[in-house]
């Protein structure tokens, strides 16, 4: 009898979840270790954030406000009253937190939003990301730019000129966005030291498969039972 998926998820699904966890949170832990070893008390810690588009799913603002992790809509004042239910929401993440578990289980692969690495605190990051919600075209017409949808980010970010790219990524260490139509590939964008854009496609299944805990084979089980039978102390 097959076990329910929540007990024994399909190998590919488990690999994607493990790869996402490693890619998003291991750099934060590595950064923490380096700062402690260097006794660096001035550099702010590297943090992870979700930036989600509430117009995709009505549960997003409800859940963002309900979770224990800090969350803010990018809209303020009257704009928040009118558009908070469909606007962009910024959520600070912690490993194994409710917000992250919810996003990975329900939102990843659904074009909900992007993931950000930054040393900026939540409110400063909100101010930074809010700058790019409205853009003007060559004719002076103003538009909402939903760059926080993965499909839009992956399409338009590589087309930015040097000035636009530098301004958009100021204060950000990296941005992660699922690949539209094929979310097993995660795209990671960041600035190189020379100011050019580095975009990397990460195969989540290939990355996550080695992280899975493999069940023992029948041969392994037989060997363990045989060893236990020969060593009563081990069996006890």
Describe the structure.
This is DUF4123 domain-containing protein. It comes from Sulfitobacter pacificus. Residues 49-166 form the DUF4123 domain. It is globular, with a radius of gyration of 22 Å. The two termini are 29 Å apart. It has one domain. It has 236 residues and is α+β, with helices and mostly antiparallel strands. It has a seven-stranded antiparallel sheet with strand order 2-3-1-4-7-8-9, with helices on both faces. The chain has ten helices and nine strands. It has helices spanning 11-37, 59-66, 77-83, 98-107, 122-130, 150-156, 162-168, 204-208, 218-230, 232-235, and strands at residues 47-53, 71-73, 88-92, 113-118, 134-136, 142-144, 172-178, 185-191, 197-203.
What structural class should be given to the helix and strand makeup?
Answer: alpha+beta
* Unreliably modeled segments: none
How far is the N terminus from the C terminus? 29 Å
Helix content: 40-55%
Question: Can you list the strand order of the major beta sheet?
Answer: 2-3-1-4-7-8-9
Strand residue percentage:
15-25%
SSE sequence, one letter per element: HEHEHEHEHEEHHEEEHHH
Query: What is the overall shape?
Result: globular
Kindly provide the radius of gyration, computed on alpha-carbon positions and rounded to a whole number of angstroms: 22 Å
Largest sheet: 7 strands, antiparallel
**Regarding quaternary structure, how should these chains be classified?**
single chain
The pLDDT mean sits at 89
Number of domains: 1
- The DSSP helix count reads 10
Secondary structure tally: strands:
9
Domain DUF4123: 49-166
InterPro entries: DUF4123
Protein name: DUF4123 domain-containing protein
């Amino acid at each position: 009898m097959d076990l329910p998926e929540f007990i024994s998820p399909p190998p590919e699904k488990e690999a994607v979840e493990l790869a996402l966890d490693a890619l998003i949170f291991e750099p934060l832990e590595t950064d923490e270790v380096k700062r402690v070893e260097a006794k660096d008390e001035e550099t702010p810690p590297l943090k992870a954030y979700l930036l989600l588009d509430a117009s995709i799913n009505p549960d997003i603002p409800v859940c963002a406000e309900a979770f224990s992790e800090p969350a803010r809509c990018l809209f303020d004042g009257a704009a928040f009253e009118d558009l908070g239910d469909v606007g962009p929401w910024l959520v600070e993440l912690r490993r194994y937190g409710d917000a992250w578990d919810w996003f990975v289980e329900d939102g990843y692969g659904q074009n909900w939003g992007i993931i950000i690495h930054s040393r900026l605190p939540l409110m400063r990051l909100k101010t930074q990301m809010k700058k790019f919600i409205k853009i003007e075209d060559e004719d002076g017409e103003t538009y909402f730019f939903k760059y926080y949808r993965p499909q839009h980010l992956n399409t338009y970010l590589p087309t930015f000129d040097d000035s636009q790219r530098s301004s958009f990524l100021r204060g950000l260490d990296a941005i992660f966005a699922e690949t539209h139509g094929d979310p097993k590939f995660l795209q990671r964008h960041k600035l190189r030291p020379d100011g050019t854009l580095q975009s990397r496609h990460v195969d989540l299944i290939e990355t996550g498969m080695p992280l899975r805990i493999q069940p023992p084979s029948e041969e392994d089980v037989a060997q363990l039972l045989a060893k236990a039978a020969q060593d009563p102390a081990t069996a006890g």
